[in-house]
């Protein structure tokens, strides 16, 4: 990934936070048929990612393979009209702000039924937490749960390297960055509030 110095995010706790907030990743791997991409939710456990796939998925047959998991945070278009300096010099152009974390590691296929069920219960409990009546794995008939468990395998990616790119207008003066935050909040499109909040948090960390 191309990462200019001012966009590099190296704080592990920040990158782990992005993974926890945006756990749906694109997993890239080389196969005998070429490059493959799969899209999966993960749980971050210590220094590893835990997830699951259908037995028919190519990942279920690639134990030990080198993989790249890409996690995307908020992103959005940035208008040059939001920069105060544009009004003065007109030497500004559009861009796109975003935050991503790239996890490099080795894939481990997990056949342990107890491990897999515990993972599914944790994932379900986490994502159902905001529901008025949270659904739990135990709500389904036992034979149905067993059938579903037999149809999937667990996967674990031990994190060997993690890199982050938070492109949040750090190459602009503070007044331009604040202008982008204001512009995002005013537009209030899909993901704009989240991107503005991330940029505001970045500004607070500099204070």
TrEMBL record:
<protein>
    <submittedName>
        <fullName>FMN-binding negative transcriptional regulator</fullName>
    </submittedName>
</protein>
<dbReference type="InterPro" id="IPR007396">
    <property type="entry name" value="TR_PAI2-type"/>
</dbReference>
<dbReference type="InterPro" id="IPR012349">
    <property type="entry name" value="Split_barrel_FMN-bd"/>
</dbReference>
<dbReference type="Pfam" id="PF04299">
    <property type="entry name" value="FMN_bind_2"/>
</dbReference>
